[in-house]
Amino acid sequence: MLRFAAARLLASLPVLVLVSLVSFSVMHLIPGDPASVIAGPAATNQEIEQIRRSLGLDRPFLEQMAAWYWNVLQGDLGRSILLGTSVWQALVDRLPVTGSLAVLALVMTVAIGVPAGVLAALRANSAVDAAVTGFALLGVSVPSFWLALMLIVLFSVILEWLPTGGYVPLSASPVDWFRSLLMPSVSLALLQIGLLARITRATMLEVLRQDYVRTARAKGLPRAMVIGKHALKNVMVPVITVIGISFGLLLSGSIVIETVYSLPGIGRLVATSIFGRDYPVIQGTLLLTATMLVLLNLVVDLLYAAIDPRVRYGR
């Protein structure tokens, strides 16, 4: 298992290098000058040029890239142009918000999507199946930002049950922490719940038609044992893939949701940095996100190997 994990980790390193190269190049190709943003509209060309020199933006592109890679290898992602703090500090301060939002949304996705898909497969072509399929179709059709606005109108403005936005740390109040993230998590998770439910249903229907399931039933094994021990284990292999992809989509989708609900997370930081041409923050965020996704894919591969040993030996 250790050799398998090491091989997967080494294979992921070129991905990180490529992502960092693309992110650095794209940020410098986008029109706009962070020095002009910092200086303001009333600044003179001399003042703007002085800020460019202080930030190192007047150096050649390849020289800036080499310096950035050298700093990254030393664990330094640079300093935020707009915030005036280190990029690491800006990301660490906001990571609990985005992490809490993504994890809570993922828990909702798995807790609802997998049971709903299994139930729909076991009750195929019934009213339950139609209800789950309709809910899944609704989930993949409703835009997350529109759902977020509708939830705010209903639960915050009309019913006054939940706050319209903001974030309460878990250490301050677990109840208020949950209330501040409930609507954002639902807005973020609905799409993934629909996708996971549909894929779980399709996979379960395929597994239930396999010979080993029919053999287990012919032996007189209890239905719960046939479903839980024989069918569900094989269903989880493709479902784990979807869960891994869903977590990555939840992280990327947090930009819109954090903006709508005014959550001080990484997604909102990225949105602000894009408008302000804060190159170090954008590059550092992309590199951190890519690293998290690579590690997530590694975890998915290890779960594959744990569930199905044939994956471990390449069979």
Give the arrangement of secondary structure elements.
Elements: H1 2-29, H2 34-39, H3 45-55, H4 61-73, H5 87-122, H6 127-141, H7 144-158, H8 174-208, H9 211-218, H10 223-260, H11 266-276, H12 279-307, H13 309-312
Summing up helix and strand content along with how strands pair, one would put the structural category as: mainly alpha
Topology-level CATH name of the domain at 87-276: MetI-like fold
Name given to the CATH architecture of the domain at 87-276? Orthogonal Bundle
Mean pLDDT score: 82
Termini distance? Answer: 15 Å
Could you spell the SSE succession in H and E letters? Answer: HHHHHHHHHHHHH
The first-level CATH class of the domain at 87-276 is given as: Mainly Alpha
Strand content: under 5%
Unreliable parts: none
Describe the biggest sheet? Answer: none
Q: What is the fourth-level CATH superfamily of the domain at 87-276?
A: MetI-like
Helix content: over 70%
Rg over CA atoms, rounded to whole Å, is 24 Å
Number of strands: 0
Q: How would you sum up the global shape?
A: globular
Put simply, the count of helices is: 13
Summary tags:
315 residues; mainly alpha; MetI-like fold; 13 helices
Can you give me a brief rundown of this structure?
With 315 residues, the chain is an all-alpha fold. The protein has helices spanning 2-29, 34-39, 45-55, 61-73, 87-122, 127-141, 144-158, 174-208, 211-218, 223-260, 266-276, 279-307, 309-312. Helix content is 79%, strand content 0%.
Structure explained in plain terms:
The protein is mainly alpha-helical and 315 residues long. The protein has a domain at 87-276: MetI-like fold (Orthogonal Bundle), CATH 1.10.3720. Helices cover 79% and strands 0% of the residues. It has 13 helices and no strands. It has helices spanning 2-29, 34-39, 45-55, 61-73, 87-122, 127-141, 144-158, 174-208, 211-218, 223-260, 266-276, 279-307, 309-312. Helix 5 runs parallel beside helix 12 (279-307).
